[in-house]
Structures
1.
Amino acid sequence: MDVRGPELLMAVGVILIFNLVYFRAFKTYSNVLRLSSFMDVLHISAALAVSFISTLLVDMIGRYGAQFVLVDNGVLVISFIVMFVFMTLMRMTIKTLYDALNEDRAQTYNTFIYGTQQAGVNIAKAIRSARPNRFHLKGFIADDTALRGKVTMGVNIYLNDDRLIERIRENNVEAIIVSPSKADRLKHTDLADRLLAENVTIYLAPELTDDWQGVQNARQIRQVQIEDLLGREPIHINMQKIGSHLEGKRVLITGAAGSIGSEIMRQVAVFNPYQLILVDQAETPLHDIRLELHAKWSYLEAPTIVADITNQQRMEEIFKEYKPQYVFHAAAYKHVPMMEDNVSEAIQNNVKGTKILADLAVKYGVERFVMISTDKAVNPSNVMGCSKRICEIYVQALARKIQKDGSAPTQFITTRFGNVLGSNGSVIPLFRQQIERGGPITVTHPDIIRYFMTIPEACQLVLEAGSMGKGGEIFIFDMGQPVKILDLAKKMIRLSGRPDIKVEFTGLRHGEKLYEELLATKENTKPTSHDKIMIANVREYDFGDISEDINGLINASYTFDSMRIVGRMKDLVPEFKSLNSPYGILDQQSGKEEE
């Protein structure tokens, strides 16, 4: 059909009017063009479709009502298609040009994303939207062989196989972002080691949540830490049982400003105790805990008390005033070389302090007393470990005494575990500081190994053991596989991107073992309801005898004669054999020479 000039102008005018009306209604021009997304394309489609239908209706009314043809239907369809393509391409072109012109390749890493499901796609969208853009998407990594050779979001999907490193080199990949769903595979495979060997930086994306916001979550993508790569099976805790023990109770925590004590505080606070009594002799860290409490749990009554657990009168005043029902005893001197040089303080703080608290717990009717011990108490080779073993002996002997004579309801529970990741003075913060200074990283011995556990999971197991204990048990935790400290140091160097940093061996320190034990050789264990917690069968001591011996040891500590004090410790704990220490001469004199 021929369309004359006036009719064509009328048709164009009607189409433009409808387009303007519906473009305004659907806000197709409200968004910034350089930030266009798939939703903008949908808005354009909807506006043009409604405009097309409206124009078609006007044309039909003209045809059948006024015998007037507005526009040929074929022309109308073609105009709809042309306008949709033009508007969409315009947005895509502007967005592409803006991204290309504003991308600072000097500050942008060629990046693969490990994970192709919804989380991985969302990460890709987030990093493309983020400004400034740190990551330039070059591809995805998948474990599913069905995805071999596939393409998504305009980039290739590569399999996590033997050719992955080759693909990384071909694409000059400098960074890998790991989807949350793939974080566990990163721990339990050699992928991280392979990537680090290629100087590829590994990043972890935040968990995918219902309120995921692309740009905001892109900023939360963080570089992987050594803690993320120490593979451990997740620990499942009976939180309901723990909560039933702690809710509405008065809970006292000693060493509350330390790594373990402060984490116990955080986990106990969740269970809505009636009162948290926090005791520590370190003023500034305790003040920090006080500020954290006010910020997160302002509704809790939580007195923060600066006090020394060896001050018996002060401790008695605290027990008398607050009448705690639950005690978590985490206060202790724990650094092995320091305690080798300060024997008197090890006894006075660790042994005397524990004895004072345990006796007061009985006197004031505490329901449960949970003591934090260490794997260094097993076949101790140093003063610190032996002091904690003496604490275990006293607490366990006291528990059996009151169970037999029914003199108090207190249940004494001891928990024993190894090194805690990130705790004050632990090896990982030390290595980080040495890396920041440019090295070298100091390792005592190339073959030294240690068990590791994160602070939160250690404290969760402490709470679980505390809720299941009946009194007198020593609970030991499944620490997983031991970690070679040299391997840990090398991996941290690769993570830092500083391959120039060297490792130096300094020799074993006084009292230090190559490996720690969780059970003595003559001990065995009994299972509990939790597969990560076991009960140690240990030698029993008579309370009267051990109490007298420990009092003598405490009195001897005030002579500050280290040889004499350590000699009494060895009498109390016959398996205590000093390693790499001047006190080894006492073992030679008593016939406990190293075989």
2.
Amino acid sequence: MKIKYTLAVLAALLMGTYKISAAVFTAVGGDWNTSATWTHTGVDADNIPDGDDNVTIGSGINITVSTASQQCFNLTINSTATLNFSSVDQFTVKGHIVLDGNITGSFTGTGFIKSTNPNTGIAGSGTMSITGNLRFNINEFIQSTVVINNTGALIIGDDGTRGYTVGIYGNATFTDGADGTAVGASLVCYTGCVLTVQNGLMNTFGNVNSSAGYCADNHIIFDGSDSYNVGNCGAFENVTFSGSGTKTLSLTTPTVALKSFIIQSGATVVGSSAYNTAVRCDFQNSGTYLGVSNKFLSLYKNFINNGTVTTLLNGGISFLGTAPTQTLTGTGATTVGYLRCYSSNHVISSIPVTVLAQLNMYAGDFNNQSILTLKGSAVTTGTLTANTVGNTVILTCAGCGAVPRTSSGYYNLTLAIPGSGGTRNLVANTVVAHNLAINPNNTLNSNNFDLTIGGNWVKNGAFTASPGHVITFNGTTAQTISSGIPTTTFTNITVSNIAGVTFTSGSYIITEALTINNGTFNTGGRPFTLASSATKTARIAPIGISGFINGNFTIERYITARDTTYADFASPVQSSTILDWDNELPAISYISHPPGTIASANTYNEITDAYVPVTSSGTALTPGQGFEVFLSGSFTYSPFPVTTMNTIGNPNQGDQDLTGLISNTAQGWNLVGNPFASNISWASVYAASGSASSGLYDYIEMYDYTIGDWHGYTSSDAIEIGSSQGFWVYGLPGHVPVQLIIPESSKTATSNSSLKSLKVPPYFKLSISGADKSIPYSHTFKVTASGDASNGLDNGDMPFRASPNLATPAMYSMLEGKKININSFNSSNDIYSIQLKTKVNVAGNYKIEASGFDFLNEYTCIQLEDKVLNKTIDLTNQNTYAFSMAPADNTDRFIVTFSKSNSCKSLAATNGDIGSNFSNDIEILPTEQGNLINFNLSETTNSLISVINVLGQTIVNPIAVDANNQSVNLALPEGFTGMYFVRIESTKGTVTKKFVRK
């Protein structure tokens, strides 16, 4: 039963209007049970107060109760007066007490009893300090500023079935001591009361609460070590837990406090198992708060923890405030199962917090400004802010794969999964404004996302890079990169820090690109490799104007397996020697005694028009210098295996002026090389070198090991020159100076591993090669015609250059005493003939194959004359001619004639007997799939069947047959249309027939 008192009722109580006693006693001093102690009015049999008498103890009077079972009705103790109990068993006041003085002493029996008359109470400003039981056997009140310190038990009602209520009003303070016994009774803390509970009050009675509507400024202090049943009417405005021992909340409603919730140092509070503990004011803890299973500490305002807060794995803290901001402050450790943020609240944490299960951002923003340790995962439908200066997020969950999303990244991020470790995956492009630490047994997986770091990289675990992803170092002070084992592999690194980035430990590999926008990238003496594989070669992107590299790189160059052959190389670093390449290339020889013994590597001297052998492993790899290197698997000329060649040194950087390496004194050809660890664009290089005005022809050549010769390209071909690739440039006669500049800006974004690129050049071509596989090499002579070309030597004529492979045949023309490999003439000529110089170094069967007719489409008749055999071949009808030749044969054997006439002599009219019978005994017929070839030969003849298009390109792999009387079905590639030639070659002759497939 709840009691509400009005001021009128309280006044009536204090005036004694509820009871007219038999006598009124006034104390003069002494023992209660002595008549000399009293003066009184009215009739009393023994002159000693009893249950129907009113008693007043005046100011300065001290009364002692030493006899058991004394009593009175109303008791008034004036200021400075004292009523003292001397170990008696009980004392009873049946009416009300006005206490302005003191009640002291102890009880050994039933205790101090306030009973009989309902709605009476204790008022005044004095203090009751007793040891023993304090009994309220009826509905009572305590009001004004009375302080009751009771170290015994509070008992409301003589039996547990009576639901009496004791109400506390005003600023009264009530301190309970031992366990009470009245189950179902209530102690109500009304407006302004201060209730201190030391032991079992909350456990014994049904409710200690604040009555609805009367909660202003009440304060309950839990100072014992029992369970406490708190909150029947809605809230205590102020709650304090003090003293030692553990206090367990046993809530009947979830709300605990509206104005203050304080856990003092030394106190331990265990949360309620019935409700989430909802604190609608600041939560202030200097002691210990322990959560219970499946229950949450629900906070609506600020969290101030200078002690210890711990919840179970399945419990935690929920932030539910509607104010703009809730804060977590203090110096104490906070460990929770779940940390949940609801609403649109902004939660700011400046204390270390450990989350065991999950950080749940259902809405709003959790702004970490200290240390946030996530032993579980993070659900961030709301916002996690973790980039405040000085904060750290530590991820320690092995099974939680995601690095949590944040609004603007992290300040410090640490992966510290204990035990056997685990992997964390980026789930978005992520910024770490300061330091990133990957602890031992931990793995960070970039997971196809970019990572930006403003501080130091500390990797003592593992890092998994994704293709295409970028790690950017963009701090404003010097950054360091340190790593334990194993080697750290990056795909892309970008440096955008004017203060620079330095390696301090570990070894490193880049598989795609290093980009330096500004600042110095310093290897610090640590191993650093730009890797090259069959599919990809790492590169250094164009370096910014304030960027710089300091330290040695190992720059790899993947080389495919091949037969023994030459390749063009160049060094991408400074201050290295050919010994650097010798360490990986299987067979490099520096002995040169031609013609019997030839060195493995050569440079080229344009002035002497000769290869210059490299005779020492100490020969400098001058940046921009090209080298022809013979590749062999051993010194016995076994095939060259797959090899990754390394060049070690400080990479070449900045615009490279190669002018001092080239000239145009003799033939004009110069062997140079790409000086960068990156592909470069010939078009960009040619433009930077000033084009023809600086004496360079817009044409380069790169060696093709498959044919033992070079392919040529112009700037319009959009050709790229690979990293470590050597190439040939041509200095135009008469230009001084000849200039070659390769700028940083000429670097491209390509990361391929090809040492050359193939492009169909815009020329009519005559290729001389072996007619069978015994001579695998070839050389191509090129012809072009235009209206601005001359018939003599001009800038359109490119000199011939012998292949370093002596087995390669040669074909060229002569103009004004120079060997010409690209012959240009004026297209106004109706007929134009070129005397060819043809030379072979190995005796055998050869063929001349014509292609690129479309590039000379004005000339409808192109004939090849064999002066040795007195033959003339119409190449427009039969584009291949087979013949035998030896090294000593006349080099002036062939003439090629270009005519705009439509009356070419047929091959059959001038071919004589050679091959005529062979031609008559072979039938080539078109079929739906391709062609049917019928052989009707008198003896078995080794023959080679091939198919080429009008550009001379092979479109069906050659077929070798031992032909006699048989048929061969020839299938064309699916989807092929246009003109093509079927050619059958043998020692008895060659048959070529033209077909068109629509």
3.
Amino acid sequence: MSIVFVSVLADADAPSNGVIAAQESLEKTRLELQQQGFKTDLTNFDFSTSPELRAREEILISTVTNLHVTPFPDHPNLMEPTGSNRVIVVWEQESSRPQSPSWPGTSEFTWEHFRQAINQREPQIDAACAAILSGPIQFDLDASDGNYMKLPHLALLKDLTQTLTKRAMLALHDGNREATWSNLMATTRLVTTWNPEPAEISHVVRFDNAKLVFNATWQVLQTNGWADDQLARLQHEWETADFLRSLPEIQAFRRASDVQEFEHDVMASQTRDAGMYEDERLLLLFYRDREIEFRNAVQIATWMQMRPMPGVTNEVFFRPKYHGRGRFEATLALRRMPLRLQEPGTIFLGLAAEAEAERRVIITTVALERYFGKYGQYPKTLQILAPEFLKSVPMDFMTGQPLHYRVAGDGHFLLYSVGLDCVDNGGKIQTPPTQEERFARLTHPILPVPQSDIVWPLAATSTEVVTLRNEQSQAEVERKAQIEAREKSEQQRNEQQAEEMRQAAMKKLLAEKPSLGKEPVYQGKPLSSWVDKVGQIERYNGAPEDAVAAIRAIGSEAVPFLLEWMPHPGAERPVEGYPNSSDVDIAWWALGSEGKSAIPTLARIINRPQRSMDDYPVWTESAKAISYLGPDAIVPMLTVATNMAGQHELWELLHNFENLGTNGTPAVPALVHWANDPDFWVRDGVVSALGGIGERADLAVPVLMNSLQHDSNSMVRRDAATALGSFANDSEAVLPELIKTLKDPDWEARGGALSGLGKIQNKPEVVVPLIAPFLYDDNNVIQRTAAYALRDLGSEAGYRALLLASNAPSSWPGIGDIIYEVREKTHRDKPQ
């Protein structure tokens, strides 16, 4: 029996015939594809580059890193239409408008903004221009990472393209023709000579940059007098560019990458069944078909012939037949998601077709300018350009017909391709959808898309520009009025509901405790109403000033009610209609020393032993409240702290001393005695309190320096660095110590140093360049800390640094709120 049993087990462990057959079928398919020239493994790809290319890459990386220190304003809108086929010449205007504002309100920049940014880093940008003009561009990458291959250069190329086009516009505005041309040629070569790796996102970035350079070139060519050899060189750059030929390799690399990721998930499952082998075989064949579709598509002469072909406008995604595999299935799902957000007609090959059509329009335009330079007028037809300036009559890639061209009455010309719809819309320029239109298209995909062409437009007249600006100003006024009306109506409804609940709650409270007397009233509103309002912190302006003033005017009469509204042991919280505890906490802060009659009651509460979990919030809120009530609270607080020796909760009481601000100066000598407590929470409470008080640098700075340099706890070191920022004007040792800590291996200490630098408001020219690079840190917490530090500085330079960082792909999502807050603060602080 034992022999038979072992035999059965052996048969059970062996692969079934079905599994073996599926494995053999997979290997056969893989071998056949390799024999047919299809790459099936990541080892078939090598994205390493030569020493020359790596040296050029290093220069570009270094330049863009330096750009972050003193950021440019938003990128100007280089194709702002005033009509269906007329566009504003940006560099002729006194100011520029951003194409995509980082935040509402950033609607205009003067050329001085650009000039200040350029002057501080001109040598680095010049070095980048020289590197770009010296040869081809390619980036050294590790193909073995497959779908997870890092592509940090994409943000670099976007930043650099925008920077060079901005420099070209400023040079045009200033009349510096030599600088204009060198910047245009450099940004052109960032598109024409960059050999992108076979990743779809890389080519999309190239197409986007090509559109940006198309717009910049239109601006540059709105002034005549460029030498024929300059124009010929620009024409040659675009003639040698190719947006289509390398696209099939994207499907080849995706095949090898997906196979690697699929096999990773299979290995994680430990055993392979027949379905797994079959799914991998189907994956290989799926990308064989996609690669063939791309090969066939890019060989077609026109978009009109290309778009009916399989896989061109109906993008297909692989779906496993038998198994959904963890990380691999997640990758496929993420790959499908962007389709829901794309505008119709902007699938990948459509973007490539647009880039090719724009390339042909630029080549034709430059040939027209060369013709004008020689003959003093533009030709009546495009056919005249060949063969002197073009090898053949320029054709529209979309249809294969000649590009549309006409000379206007003022002697300038309109040139256009019909665009992806292949319909002649009369040279109507594409305008970006408004927020409302974009949302409408996402929610109702069947809505018609406004028809437009790919246009080399006419220049707008000064009258047209003035008319547009007046219309924009009026529309902005109306938009703000509508928003304010909606907000006011909503606020009134909320206030009415809150008032009804307050009245009911107060009626019940006074019935239960008539000893409180009548609720104090200020300007016709009861105290509870003002306490509720003071807690409605305005996002960018803090507690409402009228509520703070009302509570201070009520003064000591507010004390018994605030004490009653605080948490009580065993009481049900929150009580509907009463101000909540966070609002009461802010009310104590607003009351300040006017509420000192509450000190004895609060002192008894915090000196009372805590017997249950219900006691802790009572103690916490009371300890915080007493710390707002001025210098009379120092002795009771220190007495309780002494009585709490050895208790962990001591840290919270010590931490609250920071709420005293400079009123807490007499407490500093006592506080430093806890600086070496064995409980790191207590030590942290001490350093936070010293920073909040911000006085007695003779005692505080040595303690904080010692904590930063020697404490074993990261949190204590972080908060010590933050606290040191309060003493930068009192001790010359503080700034160098914070700068040194920015390189500390402990990321929490680095964060504390950033927060500390954010307190040094009188030296933005020194502090902003130290903080700004950390907006791009790999650590998201450090990014956020740097943003808050620049917010605390509230300087124009910090504002510009935040604006630029908001466009980085890895930007912290909350940076937009910080930008708006800084803008509000800087505008509010400006002398009127």
4.
Amino acid sequence: MSAQACDGVRVIDFSRGMGGSIATMVLADNGADVIKIEQPGGSPERKQPAFLQWGRGKRSVVLDIKTSEGLAAARKLVMSADVLLENFRPGVADRIGIGFDHLSTINPGLVYCSITGFGTNGPYSAIKGYDSIVAAKSGRMNWVPPWQREGPVFESLPRMTYGSGQIAVQGIIAALLAREKTGRGQHVETSLLQVATAHAMGQWAVPLGKEKEASERFGARRPGVSPHKQMTTGYQIVQCKDGRWIQMASTSVKIFRHFMETLGLEHLYEDPAYSDMPYVFPSENDRTRVHDLIRQKMKLKDSGEWMKAFIANGNIGAEPYITTREFIRHTQIEANGLYFEVQDPRVGHMRQVGPIVEMSATPSRVQGPAPDLGEHTEAILASLDKEGPWRKNEPKTVTGGPTPGLPLEGYTVLEMASYYAGPFSTTLLSEMGARIIKIEPVFGDTMRRIHEVSHKTIQNKESIALDLKTEEGRQILYRLITHADALMQNFRRNTWSELGLEYAEIKKINPRLVYLFAASYGTKGPQATQPAFHPTVSAIAGAGVRMSGAGNPPMDSMQGDPDAAICAATALMLGLQARERTGEGQYMETRMIASGSYGTSDWFMDYEGMPEEPLPDAAQTGYHALQRLYQSADGWVMLECPSQSEWQNLCSALNRGDLLEDDRFSTIESRREHDHILTSELADELQGRPSKQIEETLLARDVACVSADDTTWGRFYIEDPQMQENGFRVQAESPVFGGKYHRHGPTLSFSDMQTRTGAPSFIGEHTHAIMAEIGYTPSEITNLETSGVIAQTDKWA
């Protein structure tokens, strides 16, 4: 068998739930020996169908770490490990006896990764970090008006939890790479609240002294991206003749024209005033008229007919709203093999989410089905006495030389990408110290014109502006490649030769280069060259159906680009890790549709007898009585109460012993059976109390319940002390903003090393310096600039 990126890495997994499970699934898929530590009775996620997927390739050991015997066994396991992952609340691991400070003394090479909800400091650090609770408290449920009422919208997609798992993998690999230089492990931390900054595509770069104005501007909800609201002309959700909905994404003048021609509305372009649609219209009445014409045209054919026409055109962004179960059979999922077929001993033949990245030299593969509870306890514990306290990948003993101050210091990554999904992936690496050189056209990346998003995708990077359509420009690219460790690009496949990006040729220049194509639909199948966009991937991934609530028309869930960026960053880290293991570079490919499947991986699977995916209620308040938004006397609160002990604490805090004694509510199963009755009981109980009182009362009994409508994400980002006390909002300086400004902090922190929060660069700001660095003389630089092959400017766009 071929080598894998994480061969020989042993991971001890103490985590619970989706985020940690996805992190260790990715590591196991890439060769790591993952030992999952489960409590007696099993981890909570075993009750979900997704455990059969998330647990694949891992070994299960049952330990009661609250006992001295269990704790001693856990510590002994840790002595044999490279990595430990946990997601306890801050301080809990220390109290149990498995905190970083203690374990690093018995295993100095240990990379110890923690995922929290709100971070380790600040007023909310002790609140349970359930995805819905973090979303509610940070204002992320108060972003768009719901369908049938006033108030917040239940966040049914665990996007922060999912993202935390991917970010954790990135931090773990960065720390392993740093360990090769220092000989030491370290503590790596991330949180759901940090990951929320990655999913919030707006930068919210706020100049110092302008906080009050920005808070007011960001305090309002954004317009609803749903069929019953007015939408941008480029992004529309339209209904077809068969009643099904299609998400349109025609966000450029060129793509929109293809769309209008396919609809038979090309006659509008006879009037020059319409030539810049979808951005410019003669008047607002004309914009509304075009909206109406589009809707009328789309009603004339079934969704399948329209999709066939859009795919045949090849230049139109569009996808139907489907369920996660339907997505696993999507044409492009099939064509690109973005799934694994597994024979599970419990459910039989099973189709599961595929690899996060296709790797040509060190391919991912499933090591086996999810384990039975405690299946490996006896064998693993017995082996510890034979193995002794060492790791297969013993860190090098490092002597002399400078110690790196940043985890990815010394790595150079070339970026050739636009929009968000590609460029933000390298932003994540730049925060860990990688040198990112952004190669953009001489007129600048078109993303620069979308200011609040582009700042976020260009910060921490050097910019060189080249005309790659010229031979001289391509020769500059090739010189850059000889000095690089990795290259990431997201151009469509049919432009590679023109831009000099064919991997077969680039490999000849630098065989150690990690080459990532951050694709949309992949390189195979009928939609391989079709553009994909933020909302179209959300539509087919099942996210839009889930967000909208049972029986409602769909909503754009706004997750496609951030999910893709986070996955591409994970892929780059796996590629660098594989390069250090094998000494060779390779071709790699991520797909936005594959990252979408990871974002909904709690239901992206299929086997005979699999339960139906649940949807939130039509009012968009939640899944059931104990995971739900409730109206209070003065607003709304979010309650999440998943366990029996939390249910008991809830009843006690509300002085409702009668609910505890009621047989209809005695177990999780019986509570679900009588959910509508319990919902009514709790709604009556909570609607007479103010939100603040409810929050204080229930949090005092360790029941997760917080206000859900007293802020918005933008206001929380700017004003809430939780952001600043944890370094999730920091200061930077840039002439783009006239000096100092606020920006989001890094998504990871490291105990022994720093992270970086630099400013964005201007178009080609570093062109001359980089050209000189790779061997061009001053006269050559002047000539190339005069001929338009290169550019250096002090312009943003």
